[in-house]
Batch of 2 targets.
Target 1
Amino acid sequence: MGGDRVFKSLLVVVLVAVTVGAQEVQGPVHHVVGGDRRWNADSDIGSWLSGRVFRVGDRIWFTYSAPQESVVELQSLEEFQSCDLSNPIKMYTDGVNQIPLEREGSRYFVIGNQESCNNGLKLHVDVKPSDLQELPNPNPWPLPNPTPFPPQPKPEPPPEPKPEPEPTTPPPSASTQLSGLSFGLFVGLLLCLVGL
């Protein structure tokens, strides 16, 4: 019974650690267009799209019944709105297509069937910057080329230092300082063990 309690306590601590860690870093997201309904005339792409954020590095996946259906990427908002399929950037016809979102900006996808496109089976993706932006350079001005200095004479050795008295309280060592995460894990484990 005591072992079960320790196991549950450790499980809680691990879950807290994973949750805290997951808030720090978020990687690319794979968006399956249409979710379970996939990319077809019955899909409610507007509902699926609601609240989604697309970022550089994410990928969108189209799954559909080939060869009856296809995905067409268009160049402009005008072509997208009017379902003008005459000048596509690319046509996807394999049934499963993974499309990387490599840069910011708008991307326009429609179904290859004119009637289904006119009925609303299309996707406008507004790609935002990645959350994992590079840190800015703290020094925007480069250092100038160093100028040569003439050789300096050797300095004389400093006088012998006098020993200082030993401090009564040693300074805290690095090992006594806990990071916020370590402290949180310690407190969480302690609370679990005492049954709170």
Target 2
Amino acid sequence: MSKPLIIQAAMVTPITPEFTIDYHTLDQLIERLIAHHGLDLSILGSTGEGALAPRKFRADFRQAVMDRVQSRCTVYSGVLNAVPSETLEELRSLKGLGIAGALVPPPFYYLLNDAEIQSYFEMLADHSPVPLMLYNIPPYTKLSLSPHIVSKLADHPNIMGIKDSSKNFEYFLELRYVVGDRDDFHLLVGTDTLIASSIQAGGDGTVCAIANLAPEWVGLTCLAALDGDPHGLAKERARLA
């Protein structure tokens, strides 16, 4: 069974000069991304500066997005926190919002070993009301999710996939080797320059920041890569440049 292509916009978080939600810009951005281009949304991740926003702001922003989306697309939310108990508490707060999954990195600051990382994600997945999307972003967390650990975590029924923002294509190919054939686990890339290459290598799609600026380009590039269309890819690369 082939998996559907996943294209998510790693959405920016519009704020006012007073650091409150800019609802007017949020309205425009959501309509541009989903009404005009049919993208799914990933909010409060790295592009959305979820790790910097206060907790109440994050809760209010999630509600504002869900109120505006009205089931027109799938929404995922980042839960970026180094404190395990607070991460779990925030995951529990997603219940009933309609959010399809949570993008969760390993706890940053301390250099955990593989067994500790595995235990952390299994604890969260055991108690989270929404599925987890593992978030591999070593430039920010200083931790990398080894392919071996990812393959083990992929067995958990409440872990739906991984977003790889390592910028390391060899690592992505290792992930493809260990989890790419699973129908219940999604392998997504978060590096804009690797979107086409990752899909051609058997990846399942992207969660990308460039969608905020060029949503149509992202969709056409993904489809050209999926179809194995070199002329289409060349056209989209030239158009973006």
